[in-house]
Amino acid sequence: MSSVNPDLLKERSGVSFPNEELTLFIFGGPEETKKKRWLISLLDVNKNPVLKNEDKHFIPRDKYYIRSLEKMKKLFQIKKQHDIDGEDWNFLLLSTGEPMLPILHDVLFIPTLEGQMSHEQLEKWIPLAKDYAIFGCYAQTELGHGSNVRRLETTATYIHETDEFDIHSPTLTSTKWWPGGLARTSTHAVIFARLIIDGKDYGVHSFVVQLRGENHKPLPGIDVGDIGPKFGFNNIDNGFLRFTHVRIPRDQMCMKFSKVSRDGKYSTPSHAKVVYGTLVTARIYLVERSSFALAKALCIAIRYSLVRKQGNDTTNNHNESIVLDYQFLQYRLFNSLSIVYTLLFVGKWMKDLNEINEKKISEGDVSLMADIHSISSGLKALCTDLVMESLNDIILACGGHGYLRSSGIPSIVDDYAQSPIVEGDNTILQLQTGRYLIKAFENAKNGRPTPATLFYLKDYSRILSERSSATTWEELTDPNEQIKALTHYHTRILAKLISNLEESSKNHPQGYEGAKSDYMIDIINVSRAYCYTITITSANEGLESIKTTYSNIYPILRVLINLFFSNYIIKYSGEFLLDNYFNSNHIKIFELGIKNCLKTIRPDAIGLVDSWEFSDNMLNSALGRYDGNVYEALYNWAKLDPSNLAHEKGEYIGYNEVLKDIYSKEYLKGINRSKL
């Protein structure tokens, strides 16, 4: 084992808190930490070399896919041997360091079955799915329609004579497009299609369709394939799917809620909100996991920035500076650190809220469903946008070496780049949340009931009249003051939006609803402001709840949340100055406070990333190695490139094929020079 870089050793010795305590918090307590460390140990690449990621950048796409299948098989063996399931299984998959096919099966396919199938159907399908006797994908998006689910074109027509549904793709744009795991892996799909009975369209419903039969050959009437190379996720076989009058039994329509009887009678529950549960599962998962991807990239960048030295050498000082000592680099990376830990609290809060909701649903209470749908939509958009913006900053923070695949950061960016798009495009989701807020405010304004999470809108007049009376940094960043400031801002711009809509609707040909199309930017801004309010509220409440249990890490987490809040205030300072909620002196205090936060975080930076306990294989980075020996790793990794391996054998790629002709002028023979 190589020795650890002395600069990293020095940094680790200066952290103000015990790393173990922060790890316990990140992992969810002593028992969860013990379990997660055990799970990570099962992925030891010395015992399971098939799980190595080191050479993945040097293998072609088809072999990369096969390598992923080999990893999947090994993971299934580990799962069976140790009886791993649920959250533990998801964590194991996440800890491999790259996207894994079972996540699509376990996070989308199985929850859809569980959420939309009847008890009798579950008894048949769930054992097969959980045992991987079948492998499924979630086929909703079509070539012509994504977020607008109501306009999907695939049809499922009930055939009375045979008690079957005829599944058909009537147009090119009805082709299912994008489902992960569809192209080569899946045996089955949950597909979303328009239910047609006796010529009547009952809207989009879900059906289970078998795709492949003996020797994995596609069944008759099924045209399935790969959509081609993507920005990232290229070990995942995203595919296309077309049906030509494929028959399935009636009982393969998911019938937990809506049902079709043998004689073709359609029935559906009076309360449509019960279907929201399966729609929001993936969004909640993305909110929960948003901090994980960013923490990985930051672990690489901060370790590298503590080893990298650049500039500041003079005649009297021949030592270059550690680049993380430069203020602007701190600003880039520590702002992202503040996002990581703030979103960590948000993910825990969202998970807890969803568990409360699921318990209520089991008791027949759907009062939280609309809230969950709105909040998960808005938070999915905000969290993934924040992470994506930060990842781009991190690449820039690492300079030229960060641009190398061997840095590990481009892979994280590539694979995460889908997150603002999948499971609902962020723009569409923010519009949904914004419209929900409009309705809630209208109810509050007219004395009607408001959703539980927006109860405070009843006091909107008081909220709008408030101004900050704080005079110091400590008062401005008090948890209650943070929540009050963001509640005031999002309520103010929501009230302004309502006023504008009411005024605009007077002359709009489509009235109030039509006027909304002229205020899409405002609706999105309201949604984001509301979700920032949820973020700050849940982060502060979460932090205060662990003040005693995790007393050693409380101070640095408080600084990080204060930094997150202060950056938001500075970004939107014009809005807060507009109605004098804050004054110019407040803004000066925030600006100075941000700089002081950077100074406080600097000695703890290494501890804040080490505590995630990412393995070197998980990071797959020459720059982010635990031992800090980045330059040796960069050089050794470069030597693995196939062109360099060929060079060592005396094979000079490109020379005999082309370069020899150019250098010898052979390529010019027979060419007659034209004359003007």
TrEMBL record:
GO terms for molecular function: acyl-CoA oxidase activity; FAD binding; fatty acid binding. InterPro entries: ACOX_C_alpha1, Acyl-CoA_ox_N, Acyl-CoA_Oxase/DH_mid-dom, Acyl-CoA_Oxase/DH_mid-dom_sf, Acyl-CoA_oxidase, Acyl-CoA_oxidase_C, AcylCo_DH-like_C, AcylCoA_DH/ox_N_sf. Gene3D superfamilies: Acyl-CoA dehydrogenase/oxidase, N-terminal domain, Butyryl-CoA Dehydrogenase, subunit A, domain 2, Butyryl-CoA Dehydrogenase, subunit A, domain 3. Residues 276-438 form the Acyl-CoA oxidase C-alpha1 domain. Residues 137-246 form the Acyl-CoA oxidase/dehydrogenase middle domain. The active site is at residue 423. The keyword Iron-sulfur does not apply. It is found in: Peroxisome. FAD binds at residues 141, 180. Pathway: Lipid metabolism; peroxisomal fatty acid beta-oxidation. Belongs to the acyl-CoA oxidase family. GO terms for biological process: fatty acid beta-oxidation using acyl-CoA oxidase; lipid homeostasis. This is Acyl-coenzyme A oxidase. Keywords: FAD, Fatty acid metabolism, Flavoprotein, Lipid metabolism, Oxidoreductase, Peroxisome. Its cofactor is FAD. PANTHER family: ELECTRON TRANSPORT OXIDOREDUCTASE, PEROXISOMAL ACYL-COENZYME A OXIDASE 1. One of its GO terms (cellular component) is peroxisome.
